[in-house]
Design a protein that fits this description.
This is CDGSH iron-sulfur domain-containing protein. By secondary structure, this protein is an all-beta fold. The chain contains no helices and 5 strands. The chain has one domain. The strands form 2 sheets. A 3-stranded antiparallel beta sheet has the order 1-2-5, with no helix packed on it. Strands 3-4 form a two-stranded antiparallel ribbon.
């Protein structure tokens, strides 16, 4: 597991989630922290996820107009 000083890979998927090598802690605007110990974590970028801040593939249900 990387320490705080080591770099983590972050991949932005066009039209999809942000993929982060895990484990991760995501600090939300309300001050709470969401945690995931998964190897790769998909963080929602569209805010449609019912599991926000984590992606549940809700972005696939609607076609985006870019």
């Amino acid at each position: 597991m990387p320490t705080e000083r080591e770099h983590r890979r972050v991949t932005v998927e066009p039209g999809g989630p942000i993929l982060i090598d895990g484990p991760v802690q995501v600090q939300l605007p309300d001050g709470t922290t969401a945690r995931s110990d998964r190897f790769v974590v998909a963080v929602c970028a569209c805010r449609r996820s019912k599991r926000y801040p984590f992606c549940d593939t809700s972005h696939r249900k609607k076609i985006r107009d870019d």
